[in-house]
Amino acid sequence: MQCPRCRQENPPGARFCNSCGTGLELVCPACRQSNPAGSRFCNRCGASLEATPAAPRFSSPESYTPKHLAEKILTSRLPWRASAST
Q1: Which residues is 35 bridged to in the sheet?
Q2: Going by CATH, does the domain composed of 1-51 fall within 2.30.30?
Q3: 16 by DSSP, 3-state: which?
Q4: 3-state secondary structure of 11
Q5: What pLDDT, on the 0 to 100 scale, is given for residue 69?
Q6: What secondary structure letter does DSSP report for 24?
Q7: Residue ranges of the domains in the chain?
Q8: Using CA atoms, how far apart are residues 33 and 24, in angstroms rounded to an integer?
Q9: Low-confidence ranges of the chain (pLDDT < 70)
Q10: Do the beta carbons of residue 48 and residue 39 sit within 8 Å?
């Protein structure tokens, strides 16, 4: 099996490249089937093997701050801004 990264030829059944250490197989996240490195879809179930973008770690404050509380916070800060500029 040829390494998709360095093109080194590796013995059949190898899980990692003997030259650079890159994984030579991808495990399907849906069915756990082993697939050759470089595969875009699972040989067994057809699920995508490409990395999915990471979800945002934290949601924005707008998504969880109640509207009435956000308005109170914003209006309470207005006098501070006015006094800071004078």
Answers
A1: 26
A2: yes
A3: strand
A4: coil
A5: 85
A6: S
A7: 1-51
A8: 13
A9: 52-59, 62, 77-86
A10: no
Q: How many residues does the chain have?
A: 86
- DSSP readout, 36-76? ETT-SB-TTT--B-SPPPPPPSS--HHHHS-HHHHHHHHHH
Structure-token match 């207005």, residue found: 78
pLDDT value for 52: 65
Amino acid in the structure at residue 57 = R
Residue-wise DSSP of 2-39: B-TTT--B--TT-SB-TTT--BSEEE-TTT--EEETT-
Position 47, amino acid: A
Residue 31: per-residue pLDDT: 94
- The pLDDT of residue 70: 82
**Cα dist. 84→60, 63, 70, 71, 77 in Å?**
27, 29, 21, 21, 11
CB 72 within 8 A of CB 58: no
